[in-house]
Amino acid sequence: MEVGRKLICRQRQVFFFFFFLGLAQAGSEFRRYSVVEETEGSSLVTNLAKDLGLGQGELSRRGARVISKGNKLYLQLDQETGDLLLNEKLDREELCGQTEPCMLRFQVLLENPLEFFQAELQVIDINDHAPVFMDRDMLIKISESSPPGTKFPLKNAQDMDVGRNNIENYTISPNSYFRVLTRKRSDGRKYPELVLDKVLDREEEPELRLTLTAQDGGSPPRFGTAQVSIEVVDINDNAPEFEPPFYRVQIPEDSPIGYLIVKVSATDIDIGVNREISYSLFQASEEISKTFEINAMTGEIRLKKQLDFETTQSYEVNIEARDTGSLSGKCTVLTQVMDVNDNAPEVTMSALTRQIPENSPETVVAVFSVSDLDSEENGKISCYIQDDLPFFLKSSMENFYTLVTERPLDRETRAEYNVTITVTDLGTPRLKTEHNITVLVSDVNDNAPAFTQTSYTLSVRENNSPALHIGSVRATDRDAGANAQVTYSLLPPLDAHVPLASLVSINPDNGHLFALRSLDYEALRAFEFRVGAADRGSPALSSQALVRVLVVDDNDNAPFVLYPLQNASAPCTELVPRAAEAGYLVTKVVAVDGDSGQNAWLSYQLLKATEPGLFGVWAHNGEVRTARLLSERDAAKHRLLVLVKDNGEPPLSASVTLHVLLVDGFSQPYLPAPEAEAADAAPAAPLTVYLVVALASVSSLFVFSVLVFVAVRLCRRGGAASVGRCSVPEGHFPGHLVDVSGTGTLSQSYQYEVCLKGGSGTSEFKFLKPIVTNFQGHSPGPDIEETPNFRKDFGFSIQ
What we know:
The chain contains 10 helices and 54 strands. A hairpin with a 5-residue loop joins strand 48 and strand 49 (about 625). It starts with a helix and ends in a 5-residue tail after the last helix. About 10% of the residues lie in helices and about 40% in strands.
């Protein structure tokens, strides 16, 4: 009965021991210590009392003990001093093999009260092993046809040490044919590779013996050697080749024995028995030989022993394919052992904000935690989001993360973000969980309306109808909602004299511009104003643009004849001497047009003449000239109808009637009475008669005024001018030059000399030739024309 009670009490103690041991492992952190291997037993590792913050003798009172996995004690605790001592000399290679770092875990148990502490002891390697070749005599058969640069892998040496104390490089004895390279496998181990530098010749040197040396990286370094015998093969000159030379396979750790890992294949381009290939493991360690097997005929590699991922994660298996001629090819099969990972990580969302105002500083979007039910690498978790988003993850505490904006967001650039939180474990294959969050960026009125153009140029044809749509302006706002609603308005005009309010208006909703009244090109050819665009945000933002309106000319003005005047009381008659030569300038029709551009380009045309072919009108300058020599058979009086037409569309025109009188000399009084003139014009329409009479009256008054002005000026001077061509008695007009400058559409200036002939009872005018300084390539006529107004108003006869 007593034995049973003790057994039950012992079981309870074991139960509570492992229960509190689990709690301690879950809540405490590791204390790490280190010791160099081969250190003598009873050597001091650390003082636990100081590390644990306990007083002297407290370890003994609390029953402190050191516990290690497997109940094998490598350490002992002096409870009185608190020193942690080595129990025996430690051999790192025996304890951990090739595993680096070599860590021994143990726990410190305090019974009264119960408390646990986790600790690790790292055994540091020393260079106490020299490299050793498993095969100290190697035989390599190389065909004499092998080209320089051919590489031959050699069996590597093994060194029980790790890190820098392991094998550093390989060298070979000096020779003329070979050098050795030190290669590194994926697992970090180094192996020698023989490189052919010079073509072999079996007849000269059928065999070579070289010394291969392996050197570790310790201080001082250690060495190991092997003999390499090279046999030069003369017959079979093609070695088997693997395609591909490197295989990478993955196998679950729970794969059954006999599981087909991979099938390697090599080919030999020889024929006959030389192409028969057998497969075998090459440079296989004891562990690889126990774990894998290969079918020599088919090249199938199968599992020979159960795998353990926690013991070995990968194997690098070297395969040799050898033909009957003893030539071989090599390939490497990297076998990765996969941990069984059957639990995906989980994401638990604690807080989430789905809408963030733009331009806000660093803002917390979400707070969440991650977890994984797996263990070891399969339970380790990495958490990340897309790289191209303005967010980042901040780790706040263990397995807790905060999603934060990286910078102020701009809604106009991007209004919505889809953030994918990806949680991945580190298992093989990796399992992951994705959690999607949609973040909306709310708008702030931070963008003013922007016009599509800084300035607009609109054209409108004159005489438009009121309320005509002449164009539009457009502004856009990158904001949203009311912040993007644009209202247009006219700003105060740049020129205060432009009545903008009566010229144009703008639709505040769409920016359409309208002409409020009919525009006249001749009164206003262009005007400018500014338009504004404002949004409805708070506060409102605005911008402005310049609008220039060009009034396009319309052909709405007919030509107006300045000379000869058509509203005079009597028609204007031009005198032409019969002795005039062809091309004699009779007169010039002067007209203007109120339009511009091609609408003001005038052309002249002779529509009707008393005697066709006698006179002609120059189309571009309106000069009326004789077309041929005059004869006695030509009528004395001629009536010419000249049409003046602009170049508009449609063209507008005006007409003028010219009266020409042919005279034998300027002394004959051939001026017809007004009654005769009226009789000749009687057949014409009443309107034409009135026009001719009005133009003649105005012309007469104009000429009379000019002569009176000249006479008054000359009389004031009181001098008698005698120039040898004309003598003027007292009280008569002196010689004077009358200048008619080219105005309007006249192409040149004319200057005439007029004087009264002295000693004549009739006081006749004498008209001399015109004084022309520049005729622009035209020859002047023999005599200047004379209008009948002079004779009519002053009673002068022509000599």
